[in-house]
Amino acid sequence: MLNKTLIRRSFLGSAAAFAGLAALPMPALALTEAGARSLVDQLVGEINGVIASGKSQNAMIRDFERIFVKYADVPIMARYALGNDARSASKAQLNAFTKAFQGYIARKYGRRFREFIGGSVEVTSTRKIKSGYEIRSLAKLRGESPFEVTFLVSDKSGRDKFFNMFIEGVNLLLTERTEIGAMLDKRKGNINQLTADLAKLS
Q1: Residue 33: CB partners within 8 Å, gap ≥ 6?
Q2: Can you give the residue range of the structural domain that contains 128?
Q3: Cα Rg, the chain, nearest whole Å
Q4: What's the pTM?
Q5: How far apart are CA 198 and CA 202, in angstroms?
Q6: Across the beta sheet with 132-140, what order do the strands follow?
Q7: CATH number (domain holding residue 70)
Q8: pLDDT tens digits, one per residue of 34-79
Q9: Does residue 41 contact residue 121 with C-beta atoms inside 8 Å?
Q10: Helix, strand and coil percent figures for the chain, each rounded to 5
Q11: What region, left, alpha or beta, does residue 76 occupy, with left being phi > 0 and alpha being psi -120 to 50 degrees?
């Protein structure tokens, strides 16, 4: 039986697959409150479906990657995770890194879905913010106290996507940016090597 701290930490990890960019300046948006709410309603519905599916770990990971690509602004997330080095990368390098990044996130966190069988995520409120909309939800895990999950949604990419996610105030993508930055440093700034290694990491 997982203790409360471990379960919360695991949920943070899983949710990090859906995290986006918090600090990126964004233009005025045509996104509506109803559109933002609908996006997150659909997202949490699919998350809940995976949690309750009883599928194998590999099948859950495939579902996790599909959900990630469908609802998150993955290119922006990948650029943010890569940090300043994204500015000097070629288009081909960025495309390859983005693909490797989404697979890495799916493998790293997707397997943790099994820990939340019997739980769910429920949208509770919507609020307009400068960069779009903030959608708050409540994660309910079996036998544990519920905790808040917040999505930030914009249409910067041309479609409604969420670009950041917070669990109890924690910016999840920052963790991946730190870890990937450390990986890149170990490879002396070689983005191609980082991409190749990300594609193999579990």
Answers
A1: 126, 128, 133
A2: 4-20+29-198
A3: 16
A4: 0.76
A5: 8
A6: 120-129, 132-140, 147-154, 161-167, 170-171
A7: 3.10.450.710
A8: 999 999 999 989 988 988 888 888 888 899 899 999 999 999 989 9
A9: no
A10: 55, 20, 25
A11: alpha
